[in-house]
Design brief:
The complex is a heterodimer of chains A (142) and B (139). Chain A is 26% helix and 47% strand. By secondary structure, chain A is of the alpha+beta class. In chain A, strands 2-1-6-5-4-3 form a 6-stranded mixed beta sheet. In chain A, a hairpin with a 2-residue loop joins strand 5 and strand 6. The termini of chain A are far apart. With 139 residues, chain B is of the alpha+beta class. Chain B is 27% helix and 49% strand. A 6-stranded mixed beta sheet of chain B has the order 2-1-7-6-4-3, covered by helices on one side. In chain B, strand 3 and strand 4 form a beta hairpin. Chain B is globular, with a radius of gyration of 16 Å. Classes of the chains: A alpha+beta (142), B alpha+beta (139). Chains A and B meet through strand 3, strand 4, strand 5 and strand 6 of A and helix 1, strand 3, strand 4 and strand 5 of B. Strand 6 of chain A pairs parallel with strand 5 of chain B.
Amino acid sequence: MTDDEHDRIERACLKIVVDCSHAADSYRHDAFVNLFTKDGVLSLARGEFRGHTAIAAMLDGRDRKQLSRHVVTNARITVQDSTHATGIVYLTLYKGVPAAGDSVVYDTAPESVGYYEDRYVKTADGWRFAERRSIPLFLRRR
Amino acid sequence: MTQDERRAIEADCTRLAIAYAVLVDAWRNDEFAALFADDAELVVPRGTYRGPAAIKAAMEARDRSFVSRHVITTVLVTVESPTTASGVAYLTHYKGAPPAGKTVVQGATPAAVGTYHDRYVKTAQGWRIARREIVWQFA
């Protein structure tokens, strides 16, 4: 594989990583689901969701009053071949429900800090998550 | 130097800045040490270490009951020549020991926030870290 091909794959995977945060935080569930392959797996602390229907149902169950920011950093993509890659991405998650009438949550402590273990695959429609596994390491003290 | 060459160097050095964090947090000490040039210097609170062997030994001596995340953002790489570059990167450092039998630490407040001051060098094997020093601003 040429350096150019390698860099293109890396950029494509980074793009879906960023898209995933924006789609989750802006409640664009169709966009979120379409970042996964048809049988893609999203594994969270609350359970494992396989395929578009299951992932969409989980997303639709979220409280829309809740604000969140999935801050992703440290993306390290490992290209395996022209159609497969893996990645480690760190997540600092902020979430909270604003008080009635407010648009801001007056509290800036992260809910959790951890990382994603990702598998990416190139489909006919472009690069998608085959699997995204979220592993929290630090949880807000309650 | 062409714009493409400069961008390629920026990308390689940014990868090093991030690989440092991912590998140190995952205890991948061999791969971590291989990010450094033969005469590289690492200046961290635990001490100053010279060369991949000393750096690897220092990483292996860490207390394994702790988990850490070195969250790297705001990476700025300045290409100086075809074989040298400098950089800064912000670090938000999380560190703690999970309770016995658990994998998750209670508390998600950073232990420290600071800045890495980096020097990168192109070796026969590719770009490597020549020097990395952490300077804390919040601790």
